[in-house]
Each structure stands twice: as structure tokens, then as C-alpha cells.
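Kindly review this record before class:
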Amino acid sequence: TSDVPSRMLDALDKFGVKIDQAERYTKNRIVIQGNAGPFDLSKQEGPCELFLGNAGTAMRPLAAAVCACKGDFVLDGTARMRERPIQDLTEALQQLGSPVECTQNPPHGGCPPVKVKAQGLQGGGKCLLSGKISSQYLSALLMTTPLAAGSKPTVIEIKDELVSKPYVDLTVGLMKKFGVHVTEEELSTDPQKPRPRYTVASGQMYKSPGTYYVEGDASGASYFIAGAALTGGPVTVLGCGSESVQGDVKFANVVEKMGATIEWSPNSITVSRKLDGSQPLKGVDVDCGEIPDAAMTLAVLAIAATDGKPTAIRNVYNWRVKETERMKAICTELEKLGAQVEEGRDYCIIQPLANIKPDVGIDTYDDHRMAMVFSLVSCCGVPVIIRDPECTAKTFPTYFDELKSLVKTA
């Protein structure tokens, strides 16, 4: 089972939420009984302690949500989680009146543990938030604002630049499905550097849509899209397509730019490439600010480019504050394979590699995506050793089984 949803479900269980997981593995279905408002744990003896591992996707929204509740909360995680910044989020919550605090951990800044003696949030405030590190801070604030009391709207404004905006668009769309409407005003004149302001009117309540269907993970699909481009395919990825709400489906556009053929349907993407020389794999120069997770997959495509041109992956500073320091990790492992890589603050430029070193042991740094990305070296016809492959359990525990199912044995 994937680690991130399990961490979130464990947290909800600690809050006393009724969760029926009887059909989780047979029908991919979980039934959650709503709480009809914020949680009140003020009468609980001692703090409510949530250990969230290295699951940033659980840490950020929960750190905001508990501020709208009542009780004493402590949110913590692994040693790496204690190096992942969260101060931009806690400072925004403080602007909205919460006494929440994070922990200073030089040189990483304010990180978990996050502690708050919560008495609920009052609506009607305005906060300025930095969007340069993670869009999840904004998503966390947006999802929490309907839980605030009061009769005035809450305004959240990005003060610099918002990375990974498609994820926020997804959040706003999800909130709408649950009955809460958010208005957006764009303050930037540069479409490549969005600086939105969001307003959430008071008096709105979340209402269950009854059933909500979760799309296939577009980030997870990127490995198979890339694998098809490397091997020729064809491979069809089901569960996300032209009507997907996920920004990472745009990764397929990058692969198309590199020379592959992409066919879209509303719920699927099919990838192929001729291997007779008429469809060479080309180096590209791409701003990946909207798809930082999927952008990692470009690393192996880059060394496999056959046109002799480098691939530049740009606007991915937040690689440095993910599950591991991904910029250094990617550059280090590519160099093990024999590649020449130029590392910048928020970019890397990767030269194509005529002969990839075989049987290289790839360190994964307890990062699920490192394991999945570098497994694609095998799609170049080169054996590779992935150390600690079990780390894919964070988001895709069956990844290697799925990859194996696509392999044609001689």
C-alpha cells in the first residue's frame, strides 16, 4: 500500500474519523464519514501527535487543517522531513491568527515538527504567501479556509511567484466538487511567473458529492510514457488523458517534443516511436516549473538522446527540498552512468551519452522517484542496479511489477 495515503488515513483515524476500508483492496474504494466541521480534541489528555514519515503531501495540508481545529497538535516525521521547509506555510497561518509554530533547523530554515495549541481560525483575514518553494502551501491554506469561523471572506495572495500552479488548479477544482467556490485574480503580467490572489467567501461548507473518482497518477504515468519513447512502444497509459485535471499530463507534450508520437484520448495516452532512424530522440530545453515531479523522468531520456544535443531541465529549484536533495541526487547518479551534467541553482543541463555504463548501482536516497526514474536505464538496453527498490512504496508499491509486465522476454 502507498505510504502517503496511509499516513493521511492514520492521521484521520487519530482524529476519530470513521473510515471503512473493507473494499480498499478489492474495489479500490474507501468510505469516509464526514465530521461536519473542524475536529475538537481539546478534551484529549496530552497532545495529538501525528507521525507522517516523509510524506510532505500529508504534512502540509494537515499542518493547516489542525489550525482550524481545537486541541494541542504536534506533527512530525523522519529526519529528512525535519529538513523540509514549512515556514512559509506557518507564517501565513500566523497571519490568519493561528499560534502555530515550526522548528528552526539551520541551514534548512523552519521545518517540522509543527506545533499548535489550536483554538480554531477566524475568517476575514488576508495573508501573503511565498509560492517559490511549494504549491502545497497554497493548496493547504485554500482547503483550510472554509473551516474558519466569521462572516468575512479570506484572501490569500502570492507575494512573489507560484511554482507548480496546475496542482493549485486541481485543488480549486476539487474544492468546487465538494461545494466550495474560490475566486482567482491573476496579478502577474508574465504567464510564466504566475502570482495569483485567491478569495474564499465566508459561509461556505464542504458537502460530500457522494462518490468521488480519483484519476490515475499522472506523475506515475510519466515513467511508462518515457519508457515507450525509449523502446519504441507502443504503450498506452490508462487513467489520465486529454481530460485529466493533473498538470503532469503535460509531460507527454515534452516527450512529443523530443520526437515520440503521442495519441490522446479523454482517459488515456498512447506513446510510440519508430526505431528505424526516422524518429530520433532529440535533446530539448524545457521550463519544467509546472511539472517538477515528472521532470525528473527527463533525466534518462536526456542521456538517450540520439541527435547529439543536450537537454536542459529548468525552473526546478524545488527539487532541492523534496524527499531528498533531488538536484544533487540526479546529477550524482547520472555521472555514475558516465554522463556530463551541468548543475545550476534551479536547472541542470545533461549531455547525451553514446555508451551508458552497464551494471551501475544507483543510490535512491529513500526517494521513490529516484528509483523509478533510473530504472528506465534498462529501457535503453543497459542493465542497471536499483538499490532499495522498496522505497517506491511511498506512492507506487507495485511499480516494478508493472514495469516487468511490459517486458517482452526473448
Remarks:
- The radius of gyration is 22 Å.
- The chain has twelve helices and 19 strands.
- The longest strand covers residues 110-119.
